[in-house]
Hints:
The protein has 374 residues and is of the alpha/beta class. The protein contains 16 helices and 17 strands.
Amino acid sequence: MEKDNLFKNIDYDNCITNVTSSIQKFYHLKPNYKTNEQLDKILSEKDYDNVVLMILDGCGNAIIDKNTTENHFLRTHRVGTFKSTYPPTTANCTTAYLSGLNPITTNWLGWSTYYNDLNLGVDNFHNKETMSKELVNGENIAYRKMSFTHMGEIISKNSDKNVSYYTVFPHFVNGGCKSLKEFEHRICKLCNQTGKKYIYAYWDDPDKTMHLEGTNTLNVKKILNQASKMLHRIERKTKNTLVIVSADHGQIDVVPIALYTYYDLMGCLKGPITCDARTAFFFVKEEKKEEFVRLFKKYFDGMYELFTKDEIINKHIFGYGDENPLYRQTIGDFIAVAKDNYFFLISPKSQILKGHHSGPTIDEMSIPLIIIKN
């Protein structure tokens, strides 16, 4: 993949935040960005009591296509496709769904973030130090320094439709669902209550399973079949409900590179490696920048493409809109983007995975628009 074409699958006119903009429009709010015209038409068909935005983590178009048959529920109800925000990784993309804002504005760019005022790289969800994986004491730093308001809260407060906002999550969120069956039951229960509701529902598979097993296994097929049965039951058990089903990103099968063993290159760094395994931010000592570029190209030419901070800013890969005050501090002096199916292990604590994402390939970036309505 040539450098000029590496980001060809990024499309901020047909991505996650265009879908959320259509939802804003449905609730008579000013959209943050251009809307998704296909979804606009679907939403205009009826004044739905319930709009459910359901995210199946990792369930990109390529995952559906290689793990299901043509008459599978996920395929027969897929009406279109759109793109992840970049990079295609959960912290980035689910924040785009929840906030309705592009990553440049929220600064939720990837799995981890470097805070130069703290001289600390932190895994955003887990509040762990990025390289050592040791828990950082106290309040979650990402939630404090990169806080945002849920779009659903804005809808509930400002829409003239008198809408209530609900979220449904797996067990790792306080009060979350312990099984897919409970996930289904909670969604149906909410939809069958009186009043208008906007519901954001997130489930962590097939992503969780594919990380461990790869993208084309019997367990992945089983998970997609279970999801299809769940959706069919929701379709039958609810009324005047629109369920928009998609993913945060896809996945590909990957090969690890133990980056931390390249001691001469690591010696050029002044801070932790952050963002994600297939789009990585490097903070480099001023006097070592030329050496870093030389060594990186020596070791990883053909595997990763290296960009400067200015190149990345000018390419708008994190979208358009107001810049978060932390944005230019956190994107690194150099940004490495995977060209093939490799991913970096940045420390001995990094987990070796079979499936991964956060790179620019179409299989990672392309996600489905699946519609369930009654």
